[in-house]
Specification:
alpha/beta, 12 helices, 20% strand, single chain
Length: 296
C-alpha cells in the first residue's frame, strides 16, 4: 500500500515547485520531504520528480498525484457521511478559464465550506488537459465529450459581445466594421491560446479577413480586457455580464449587436469522485445558472 504521507509530499513539491516550498506547506524539514519522495520512488521503482527550477512531476508522478487527490476527496466525503465533519480542510484543485472566474464561478467556491481551493487558470479549450494529466480534480471546459472515466455536466453558455469604445470606432472603423478595417484595427488577446476574436471574425467575414493575423495587444486579464476597451486601446470579445453597464452608459458600443458569440461550458470530473464532489458540483451548477444561458 502506498503511504498517503509520501503522496502528499510528492504533490506538495510538484505544486509548490520546490522542496523548500513543500516543506513550509507541510511543516516539515526539507530533508524529511526528500526522504518521503525517495521512499516513494523506491517503492514505485520510477523517477517521480524532475529536480529543477521548478521541480515538476513526471508522468508517473502526475498519475500518483491524481490518485492522492481522489483519495483525499473520498476520505472527506466518508467523514461527512459519518457525521464527523471533513476532518480538517481538504484542498480542491480546479482548472477554470479566466472569464468564468471573473463572471460566475467565485460564488460557487463561496458556497462550499470546509475546503481550501487551489485554482488553476487556463483557457477553456485546453483546461481539460489538466484533468487528463491528473493534476486537478475538476475543470470548467469547452469540451462536452467526457474523458474516459469522467463525467461531463453541461453548464450553459457564456455570451460574448464584440465591443469597443465610441472613440475607438471613430478612429479605426469610421466606415463601419469592414474586412479592411478589421485587418488594421488593433484587437485584444488574452494569450496565444485565446481564439475568441479570430472565431468571431471568421464567423462574420469568413475568409475575407485573415483572422490569424489580426493585430493584437496581449492582456492576460478579463477585467483588463474591459478597461482596455473602455480606454480605446482595442476591440475584443467581452462577456456580456462584464460590459452590460458600460453598454448602457455608452462607454462601450458593440461592433455587431446581431452577432454575439455563445461559448458552451461543461464541468468535468473523475467518475470515482462523483459523491465526494457532490456539494461542489451542485454549487457550480447553481452559480452557472445565474449568469450563463441555459444549456441546449
Amino acid at each position: 500500500m502506498i503511504d498517503p504521507l509520501h503522496l502528499q509530499a510528492l504533490a506538495a513539491v510538484h505544486r509548490r515547485g520546490s522542496f523548500g516550498g513543500a516543506a513550509a506547506e507541510l511543516h516539515l524539514t526539507q530533508s524529511a520531504v526528500s526522504q518521503r519522495i525517495k521512499a516513494l520512488e523506491d517503492q514505485i521503482g520510477s523517477v517521480l520528480l524532475v529536480r529543477g527550477t521548478p521541480c515538476v512531476a513526471t508522468q508517473a508522478g502526475q498519475t500518483l498525484i491524481g490518485h492522492f487527490d481522489r483519495l483525499m476527496l473520498m476520505e472527506s466525503a466518508v467523514r461527512r457521511d459519518l457525521g464527523q465533519g471533513a476532518g480538517g480542510q481538504s484542498t480542491l484543485r480546479i482548472a477554470v478559464n479566466a472569464d468564468s472566474l471573473a463572471t460566475w464561478f467565485l460564488p460557487a467556491l463561496q458556497a462550499v465550506e470546509g475546503v481550501l481551493f487551489d485554482i488553476v487558470i487556463d483557457d477553456e479549450d485546453v483546461s481539460l488537459d489538466w484533468l487528463k494529466r491528473g493534476e486537478v480534480a475538476a475543470v470548467v471546459t469547452a469540451h462536452a465529450r467526457p474523458l474516459q472515466g469522467c463525467e461531463s455536466v453541461p453548464l450553459g453558455s457564456l455570451r460574448y459581445l464584440a465591443t469597443a469604445s465610441p472613440e475607438y470606432m471613430k478612429r479605426w472603423m469610421p466606415e463601419g466594421v469592414t474586412a479592411q478595417a478589421l485587418a488594421k484595427a488593433p484587437a485584444l488577446k488574452f494569450s496565444d491560446k485565446d481564439k475568441l476574436q479570430e472565431r468571431w471574425v471568421a464567423q462574420i467575414f469568413g475568409s475575407a479577413v485573415r483572422a490569424r493575423t489580426l493585430p493584437c495587444h496581449r492582456i492576460g486579464s478579463s477585467q483588463g480586457f474591459v478597461e482596455a476597451c473602455v480606454l480605446g486601446l482595442g476591440w475584443a470579445l467581452n462577456p456580456e455580464y462584464l460590459v452590460a453597464d458600460h453598454l448602457v452608459s455608452g462607454r462601450l458600443v458593440t461592433l455587431n449587436a446581431e452577432a454575439p458569440h455563445d461559448a458552451p461550458l461543461f464541468w468535468q470530473f473523475n467518475r470515482l469522485t462523483t459523491d465526494a464532489l457532490g456539494p461542489m458540483t451542485a454549487a457550480v451548477r447553481k452559480a452557472a445558472a445565474q449568469v450563463l444561458l441555459p444549456p441546449e
